[in-house]
Give the backbone structure.
Amino acid sequence: MNISIAEQALVELGVDFTKKGEVLNVKLGGCSTKLKIAYNLSKKKLSYSYYQTLNIFISLFIVVTSMSSIGSKDYLMSGLLLAVAIGIIISTVITEIKVTDLKRSIREYKM
């Protein structure tokens, strides 16, 4: 599957996206992160990039910082940091669900 077929699928599905060169920048909406779809020539398939690993590491860092704040008896800051970390984790899960559904829809469009 090449990028033009994915582009046709996104148009038919009514998904909001922009095209820059050979990369499709997809806006998934809600509290999910942006998705980039590109064609990987070496693997001969579409590659999806949406920074899920980075979001998990950021949320883990914030959780560790939150635990450090508890140690210094700064409970308000700890609570706020923990809330931010939970928000990032929820956003990552929502993005994963939306991307999985979009991958399935694009794959079915090809057939």
